[in-house]
Amino acid sequence: xNELAVSGIKIEDLIYEVRGKQVMFDSDLAKLYQxxxxxxxxxxxxxxxxxxxxxxxxxxxxxxxxxxxxxxSETSCWTC
Length: 80
Prior knowledge:
mainly alpha; 35% helix; two-stranded antiparallel ribbon; 3 helices
């Protein structure tokens, strides 16, 4: 399955390149996995099972990186 059932968005469209790596936002992953409380549920699950998530699988964006991605996707509500 390569589309989100609810919105018809292709997963490929949710992948961005940051620091030379392909990444997905936690908000998109929460939608994909239909987390009841959105990113809160997803991030809590990661914290509870941190040993299942190697460091190379996650990182936090710096503000400048986020702003660059914001202009690529135009889906953000943060101000840069």
